[in-house]
């Protein structure tokens, strides 16, 4: 009996000790330090987006490297390097993967955090987040897909323009990095021949801070903390002196101010609209004899950013937005629509586990970084392998995110021009495998975003072009599997997105970076 | 006079209480201070229904017109085999069907997790006129199907493999009993269908780390040869995890807590030896990141006796 008990005790102990393996390796924690295959020393000649010329804003010449003031800056670096803590080493390693990359990740995180639709008021109306009061509920912003697309674009464009300006002055002043001037300073990240004044990392950090203050004002403290860590990491790594950093900050702030000026006059402030305008959208579609879209949320939520289609695009003008608008969707009374509904209904009843996995992989709904964020994540993983210079990272993200923002503009223009009902509105028996977005169906946002992203990314990394197209097709079809969209929304959206992507390719061919 | 906890050993655990967040289905299958005798096998099925309209978004109690009332129906097969008089092996497999009365989300249903539990009674003694017994339980549970996990509150389970250890003490004086137990759950990572998600920060992985859980279960009531009636207090606590942010969807690694009270019973049908009915009703009084569920469960069980020489179903201890 005693022996038996001992055996049982062992059994219990073993069961408990088996435990569960909880190690998780997150993809973005294993990126190698950035070691560009080409430093793009002449990026100061590339064509900026918002700046008229790379040296639109002046930057004073740096002090000479034999000046006493400069020597004191070198002593600061040596001081850090003599007493580096584990936390400081970890910070150096984290930022070494690339400033543009890390700030893109931070942006995605802010979008995911802020992508939450406000709760309705007791009277059934909905509060609208206000940049004037970002901390009060509902906190500003509600980073929905169009908001996010525009945010990614502005931050990426500002980073790119500021870096083109920085690379202009790097070449002009040609001040070497501290590790190249003082043999006692070790480069703790891969060293290149790129001049260090002004610091490209300070430019990225500072321009991101300025843009994100505008776009995510409730997160200023977090953003500023990240920027301080970023810039300090570069000093500790022996890559920049304090004056390299300060020059970068100074240049970046001027560039950011010009980009912010564009952002404040791009019609975004009018994208929400008014109750009278919302009613008009409904009545003008009803007047054509078609069934207008109605929110299926309870209580009915106003449509998401109905006038985002009037926002000023980056890659073309607003007249082109209208010219690009696809033809109408099938009539809500047509045989064609009935057939499309039938397909959607089928997925409600019998989507396979694999199809549901595809729906959820691409859902990018509430509380996520949105479809443009997903394409940024895909791009980041591939860009890492390309070993781009910081300025090329910024240029390629700017191309991607201008395409995503303009895709949002043309898609939203189309959605609110036709104001076409969702399958769930046409047939309430249709249930969805993910949340139903609160805006009209035609055309699919996911498809437009994906078509645009796959097109420009395929141009940037031709080896991956067919993979991107495959992904875009899957993302697009995921919306049919999810019973969110008719097939026509997705097919037309993909084509529409590719058209926008081609504008980005046109820019890429002419920006001097090839 | 035989001890009650020997007399009423033909019992399967009755208290599978499902909530829409079905973690409890795993937790509640073993908390009875009763054992099957050697070579007896008790099996049966249970049905359960639970629903909630209000839920806690972090500490904030709210409803949601786009979910309406979320309800969960369960049918489960369960069994308990007496390896020895003081060592039992239990299993349970529930089929769960979840639905929301409002909104557009597709309902979810399917076979959930298998739970295997070893239940051991190392100490059985008397203290004065009272009977006292101590139990140790260890269980393992794992999903039987690749059900959708990342779809709360309608997913049928959380998808983790779990290991549980429970210590339970039972005290009985006359017909009145008290059972107190505490359990600890270690849960494996869960693989979801997307490669990035936000909790309180961004995660670039399809793996979700699941915080540990602890449970305290207290039951007290009246036992006799006819069965028992009891009052139940159950406290489930997640050690870690995060709150649902304002108007967000729930997530697997939320801090899910619930304090529930309820009543349970077991009735032995004297006319058919080995046949019994069990049931309970539970209500969530406080919670966090969970629905305020009311639930009811009913089950029917029958004992098969595999004792070689037995022709009496070893029921002598039912004759109290």
Walk me through this protein's architecture.
The complex is a heterodimer of chains A (514) and B (320). With 514 residues, chain A is an all-alpha fold. Chain A has two domains: 34-59 and 73-263, Vanadium-containing Chloroperoxidase, domain 2 (Orthogonal Bundle); 273-509, Vanadium-containing Chloroperoxidase, domain 2, CATH 1.10.606. Chain A is built from 19 helices and no strands. With 320 residues, chain B is an all-beta fold. In chain B, 3% of the residues lie in helices and 55% in strands. In chain B, strands 1-4-5-7-8-9-10-15-16-17-18-19 form a twelve-stranded antiparallel β-barrel. A two-stranded antiparallel sheet of chain B has the order 2-3. In chain B, strands 11-14 form a two-stranded antiparallel ribbon. Chain B has one domain (4-309): Porin, CATH 2.40.160.40. Chain B is built from two helices and 19 strands.
The CATH topology of chain B comes to Porin
CATH class of the largest domain in chain A: Mainly Alpha
Shape of chain B: globular
- Count of structural domains of chain B: 1
Distance between the termini of chain B: 9 Å
Round the Cα radius of gyration of chain A to an integer and report it.
Answer: 26 Å
The main β sheet of chain B shows up as: 12 strands, antiparallel, barrel
Supply the CATH class of chain B.
Answer: Mainly Beta
Low-confidence runs of chain A: none
Number of helices of chain B: 2
Tell me, what's the shape of chain A? globular
What percent of the residues of chain B sit in helical stretches (DSSP H or I)?
under 10%
What kind of sheet is the major sheet of chain A? none
Structural class of chain B comes to mainly beta
CATH superfamily of chain B: monomeric porin ompg
How far apart the termini of chain A lie comes to 82 Å
What is the correct CATH architecture of the largest domain in chain A? Orthogonal Bundle
Reading side by side through the largest sheet of chain B, how are the strands ordered? Answer: 1-4-5-7-8-9-10-15-16-17-18-19
Largest interface (CB within 8 Å) is between:
A-B, 55 and 48 residues
Helical content class of chain A: 55-70%
């Amino acid at each position: 009996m005693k022996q038996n008990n001992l055996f049982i005790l062992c059994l219990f102990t073993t069961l408990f000790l088996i435990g569960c393996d909880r190690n998780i390796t997150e993809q973005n924690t294993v990126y190698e330090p950035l070691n560009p295959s080409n430093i793009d020393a002449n990026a100061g000649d590339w064509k900026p987006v918002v700046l008229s010329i790379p040296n639109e804003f002046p930057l004073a010449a740096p002090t000479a490297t034999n000046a006493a003031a400069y020597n004191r800056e070198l002593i600061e670096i040596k001081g850090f390097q003599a007493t580096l803590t584990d936390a400081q080493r970890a910070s150096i390693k984290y930022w070494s993967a690339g400033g543009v990359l890390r700030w893109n990740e931070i942006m995605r995180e802010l979008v995911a955090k802020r992508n939450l639709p406000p709760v309705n008021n007791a009277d059934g109306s909905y509060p609208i987040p206000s940049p004037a009061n970002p901390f009060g509920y509902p906190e500003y912003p509600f980073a929905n897909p169009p908001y996010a697309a525009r945010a990614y674009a502005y931050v990426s464009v500002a980073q790119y323009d500021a870096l083109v300006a920085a690379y202009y002055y790097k070449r002009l002043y040609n001040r070497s990095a501290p590790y190249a001037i003082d043999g006692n300073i070790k480069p703790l990240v891969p060293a290149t021949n790129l001049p260090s004044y002004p610091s490209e990392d300070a430019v990225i950090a500072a321009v991101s801070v300025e843009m994100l203050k505008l776009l995510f004002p409730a997160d200023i403290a977090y953003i500023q903390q990240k920027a301080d860590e970023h810039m300090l990491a570069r000093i500790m790594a022996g890559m920049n002196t304090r004056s390299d950093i300060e020059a970068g900050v100074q240049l970046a702030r001027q560039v950011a101010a010009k980009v912010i000026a564009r952002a404040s006059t791009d019609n975004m402030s009018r994208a929400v609209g008014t109750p009278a305008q919302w009613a008009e959208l409904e009545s003008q579609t009803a007047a054509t004899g078609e069934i207008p879209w109605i929110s299926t949320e309870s209580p009915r939520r106003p449509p998401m950013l109905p006038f985002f289609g009037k926002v000023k695009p980056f890659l073309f003008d607003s007249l082109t937005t209208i010219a690009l608008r696809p033809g109408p969707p099938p009539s809500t009374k047509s045989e064609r629509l009935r057939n499309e509904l039938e397909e959607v209904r089928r997925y409600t009843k019998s989507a396979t586990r694999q199809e549901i996995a595809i729906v959820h992989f691409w859902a990018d709904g509430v509380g996520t970084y949105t479809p443009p964020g997903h394409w940024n994540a895909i791009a980041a993983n591939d860009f890492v392998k390309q070993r781009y210079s910081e300025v090329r990272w910024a240029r390629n993200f700017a191309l991607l995110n201008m395409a995503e923002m303009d895709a949002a503009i043309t898609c939203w223009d189309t959605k609110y021009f036709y104001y076409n009902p969702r399958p769930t509105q046409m047939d309430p028996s249709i249930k969805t495998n993910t949340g139903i977005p609160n805006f009209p169906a035609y055309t699919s946002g996911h498809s437009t975003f994906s078509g645009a992203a796959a097109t420009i990314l395929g141009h940037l990394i031709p080896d991956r072009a067919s993979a991107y197209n495959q992904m875009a097709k899957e993302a697009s079809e995921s919306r049919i599997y999810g019973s969110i969209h008719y097939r026509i929304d997705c097919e037309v959206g993909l084509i529409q997105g590719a058209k926008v992507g081609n504008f980005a390719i046109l820019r890429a061919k002419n920006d001097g970076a090839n | 006079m035989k001890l009650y906890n020997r007399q009423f050993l033909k019992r399967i655990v009755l208290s599978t209480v499902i909530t829409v967040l079905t973690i409890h289905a795993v937790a509640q299958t073993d908390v009875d201070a009763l054992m099957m005798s050697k070579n007896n096998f008790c099996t049966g099925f249970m049905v359960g229904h639970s629903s909630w309209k209000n839920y806690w978004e972090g500490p904030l109690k709210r409803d949601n017109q786009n979910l309406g009332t979320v309800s969960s129906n369960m049918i489960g097969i369960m069994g308990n085999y007496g390896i020895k008089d003081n060592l039992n092996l239990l299993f349970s497999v529930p089929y769960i069907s979840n639905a929301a009365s409002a909104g557009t989300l597709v309902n979810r249903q399917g076979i959930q997790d298998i739970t295997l539990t070893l239940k051991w009674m190392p100490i059985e003694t008397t203290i004065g006129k009272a009977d006292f017994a101590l139990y140790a339980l260890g269980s393992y549970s794992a999903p039987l199907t690749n059900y959708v996990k990342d779809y709360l509150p309608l997913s049928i389970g959380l998808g983790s493999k779990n290991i549980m250890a429970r210590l339970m003490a039972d005290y009985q004086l006359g017909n009145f009993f008290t059972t107190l137990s505490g359990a600890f759950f270690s849960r494996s990572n869960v693989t979801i269908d997307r490669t990035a998600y936000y909790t309180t920060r961004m995660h670039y992985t399809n793996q979700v780390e699941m915080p540990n859980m602890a449970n305290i279960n207290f039951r007290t009531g009246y036992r006799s040869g006819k069965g028992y009636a009891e009052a139940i207090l159950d406290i489930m606590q997640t050690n870690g995890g995060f709150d649902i942010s304002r108007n967000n969807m729930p997530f697997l690694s939320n801090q899910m807590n619930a304090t529930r009270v309820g009543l349970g019973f077991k009735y032995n049908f004297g006319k058919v030896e080995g046949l019994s009915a069990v049931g309970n009703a539970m209500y969530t009084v406080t919670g966090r990141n969970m629905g305020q569920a009311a639930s009811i469960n009913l089950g029917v069980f029958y004992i098969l006796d595999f004792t070689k020489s037995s022709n009496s179903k070893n029921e002598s201890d039912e004759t109290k």
